[in-house]
Amino acid sequence: xxxxxxxxxxxxxxxxxxxxxxxxxxxxxxxxxxxxxxxxxxxxxxxxxxxxxxxxxxxxxxxxxxxxxxxxxxxxxxxxxxxxxxxxxxxxxxxxxxxxxxxxxxxxxxxxxxxxxxxxxxxxxxxxxxxxxxxxxxxxxxxxxxxxxxxxxxxxxxxxxxxxx
Length: 165
What we know:
The strands form two sheets. Strands 1, 3, 5, 6, 8 and 9 form a six-stranded mixed β-sheet that branches. A three-stranded antiparallel β-sheet has the order 2-4-7, with no helix packed on it. The protein is globular. The chain has one domain: SoxY domain (Immunoglobulin-like). It is 27% helix and 32% strand. By secondary structure, the chain is α+β, with helices and mostly antiparallel strands.
């Protein structure tokens, strides 16, 4: 009898899940804010932030950005962005590539801010994560050193060659 109840409950929940419409929506920021995707230079992060949010002044803290201090492969740099704030958007900026703005996420109401992504970085640079909470920007910054090639970069390559010879 327990099996029948379990199967009936599972079937009922499955039907309820299918009948409930999903309320996900996204804004295409490339269409609505095209100037935010500018070339990277010393002021590119600030100007992209200004184009996206109207200001570039942020408060450090309340946002956690986890990134490697040294990325052995610039093609795959893992990032984790988390915060307990009730933010509306989360944006990722960097100054090592042709475009300073990497990604913008729209957080649903009551959503949890915990994003994991991988970005490409051509050279060593600064990564900034920004959470927008009612027009106030909170940020976290991390410098990521991109080594020349995989397997630990130039140091490990020269070390391995020296030990082989």
